[in-house]
Write the structure tokens for this entry.
Amino acid sequence: EAQVTQNPRYLITVTGKKLTVTCSQNMNHEYMSWYRQDPGLGLRQIYYSMNVEVTDKGDVPEGYKVSRKEKRNFPLILESPSPNQTSLYFCASSLTGTNTEAFFGQGTRLTVV
Amino acid sequence: KQEVTQIPAALSVPEGENLVLNCSFTDSAIYNLQWFRQDPGKGLTSLLLIQSSQREQTSGRLNASLDKSSGRSTLYIAASQPGDSATYLCAVLNSGGYQKVTFGTGTKLQVIP
């Protein structure tokens, strides 16, 4: 089954403790991206990647890191999480960046205390 | 900076009505526009993708139009059903040297049986 898989689905952590949210797709998609969703602010793009070893900032990249060493994986790294990073996070992928539909993972609800 | 607005923020209609959801964007330099639905606690499901060169796309009871010059898209839902109740989001893939995605804040639809 074609899908985008995020792990974990739920995470509670403490301020400053490094964490990684994994994202994997099995559709051989080139374009992958991360979003956060907050009440009243909607979905905002954090980082995106147009292919292996090619990443770029979205609108809210501060406090986040990403890497794209393999085509299928695009982990989101929070090196020193803070409470303002409490949010619902989504990973998405599409075949190319310009003319194909995007597929989303089920989301990761992160709480930083 | 691209801004995407969806009006209304919430909509409640009786079952069977035809309805129109609106999406407007400020910068016409886009590759495509995509409509999604989001059910509570779930990820996003792609409904329709319109390329910047297209005027409309149809899938079943859904029809989406795009007028890039005026910065507007509409999602038409025919013969609404209670199962259509969800939040509907539009997103534009921006061009102009990068491939950022900008989402609208959504329209929460309730179809009353």
